[in-house]
Amino acid sequence: MSQRLDLWWIATLGLVLAVAGAAPAEDLLIRGGTVVRADGSQRADVRVRGEVVTEVGSLSPASGERVVDATGLLVMPGGVDPHVHLAPIADVFRFADDFTSGSRAAFAGGITTVGHMAFPHEGELPMATLEREAALARDQSMVDVFLHTTILEPSPEAVAQVADLAAAGQPSVKVFMPFETFEPHHAGFLRLMQAAGANGVRIAIHCEDAHTLDYAIERLVAEGKTSLDHYTKSRPVVSELVATQRAIAMAETTGASIYIVHLSSGRALEAIAAARGTLPVYAETRPLYLHFTEERYAGPNGALYVGFPPIRAASDRDALWEGLASGSVDTVATDHAPWTRAEKLDPTLTIESPRPGTNNLQVMLPMLFSEGVRGGRLTREQFVAVTSTNTAKLFGLYPQKGTVDVGSDADLVLWDPDATRTIRDEDVLSNTGYSLYAGTEVTGWPRMTLRRGDIVYENGAVSAEPGSGKVVKRSPIAR
Ligand SMILES: [Zn+2]
Questions:
Q1: Which residues pair with 31 in a beta bridge?
Q2: Which of 6, 114, 428, 447 is the most exposed place for a label (fewest CB within 10 A)?
Q3: In angstroms, what is the span from residue 359 Cα to ligand 1's centroid?
């Protein structure tokens, strides 16, 4: 009697737990597609149970399973975007998107995991920043999230918490070289980087040199050239180059592994490529630098294209594409920092007070696929590498994220490589309401997106609940 009662209780408890948790995902068989991984492609079916992929191969439907016809489609790991801003930065940068609206845009664009830049409040220590922003992500997000904790002032107390960030499963820190807090704390940043290297924490670093920027801006102001037409000259390539060289030197000094965010120039890329053989130095670029050239800043809509650093010359754009193909640029990130069109075109903005950032989450992958893969600059395997696999590996998420394999999270995008569409403002799901790429015809578009086994985007519609995204714990990173 007691044994039967125990079994009944266990069964009832299991049912109650299943109902109390998220709605259980459907059993799925994704059939007839081509599975694309960074190291090769194969025709294969993919079985999904719960949140994970359980089989990849030639599979027959099981009873009760929903069969998704993927004939003619690519089955790729969901995009892992290492660089987004989906929460305000103090009271200065109040972005148009939060984690919920950002998630909508991401799912519609085939992205299932994002790396958010967590910014400290005044006087806040890193663990408090991490916990506060992680709570926001847990409340609002539908995409899965990992966090880079920004450290502006590397006090001994802050440096001591670098090991705690790793222990909390978020082993990365963001450092800003152009901010006014960098120069006075140079020695502190060396100690911070040493602690990062010793604890398997990666340093994501924004490379622009404050003194060079100040000098360039001062000269332009003296000539009366303060409008954003002069934006490229206000943040010259040499400011990125000298900061990149210095960041590499700091990595060599301290043993830290660095990840250079939003790389814009061919000259800085050469410095990175030269260091890669001996030092753990990695690089990210973003859509602005791959699809546009500096001529965009001329004219009445030039301010829409303002980001740190600026868009460069055609030769820089071509060098970044070649870097993606050769492997010297590891990832493409959105750096989604969303403003409305009116905010970007505010007539009071100048080279001394620009408003950096653009929205990118919804169309980064279609633009990159169209110009990269369809345009013959990248293979589809390289596309998967730079938009998912490399990022997952660099930030301690692989193989849970970043691949289509047995045991990996069923974060999948079913991609129609032949669908041709024109990007339109009216389709934008970000609260910004516009796209820099509106009017561009692209070939290659997501048909369906799954996040941990749930279909979150299908037939043009996003369906997920705010709070269904997880803050994903990561392993300490290797160098
Ligand atoms: Zn950023």
A1: 69
A2: 6
A3: 11
Alpha-carbon gap, residue 454 to 26, rounded angstroms = 7
Torsion of CA 217, 83, 466, 365, to 10 degrees: 110
Contact 437, 363 (CB under 8 A): yes
Given pLDDT bands bounded at 50, 70 and 90, which one contains residue 24?
Answer: low
327 C-alpha to ligand 1 centroid (Å): 22
In a domain, 399, yes or no: no
Query: Residue 63 C-alpha to ligand 1 middle, in angstroms?
Result: 47
Q: Where are the alpha helices (DSSP H) in 116-264?
A: 126-140, 156-160, 162-167, 186-198, 210-222, 231-234, 237-254
CA dihedral 55, 59, 62, 67 (to 10 degrees): 90
Indicate if the alpha-carbon torsion angle 253, 258, 264, 266 is positive or negative.
Answer: positive
Compute, in angstroms, the gap from residue 165 CA to the centroid of ligand 1.
20
Query: How many angstroms is it from 15 CA to the middle of ligand 1?
Result: 44
Give pTM, 2 decimals.
0.94
The C-alpha torsion from 60 through 66 and 71 to 73, rounded to 10°, is -120
Q: Is the preceding omega at residue 184 within 30 degrees of 0, hence cis?
A: no
Q: How far is the CA of 256 from the centre of ligand 1 (A)?
A: 21
Q: What is the pLDDT of residues 391-426, one digit of tens each?
A: 999 999 999 999 999 999 999 999 999 999 999 999
Report the separation in Å between the CA atom of 334 and the middle of ligand 1, taken as the mean of its atom positions. Answer: 9
> How many A from CA of 131 to the centre of ligand 1?
20
Helix boundaries (H) for 352-469: 364-368, 380-384, 390-394
Cα angle for residues 114, 254, 320 (degrees, 5° grid): 45
Closest by Cα among 380, 384, 413, 409 to 397: 409
Provide the 10 A C-beta neighbour count for residue 344.
25
- Domain membership of residue 19 (yes or no) is no
For residue 345, give the CATH number of its domain. 3.20.20.140
Residue 388 included in any domain: yes
| Gap between the Cα atoms of 41 and 194, Å rounded | 40
Structural domain boundaries, residue 303: 78-394
- Ligand 1 mean position, distance from CA 222 (Å): 29
CB 59, CB 406: distance < 8 Å? no
pLDDT, tens only, 420-470: 999 999 999 999 999 999 999 999 999 999 999 999 999 899 999 999 999
Q: Which two tokens stand for residue 41?
A: 């492609």
In the chain, how long is the greatest CA-to-CA distance?
92
Are 120 and 129 a contacting pair, CB within 8 Å? yes
165 domain-assigned: yes
Residues surrounding ion ligand 1 at CB below 5 Å: 335
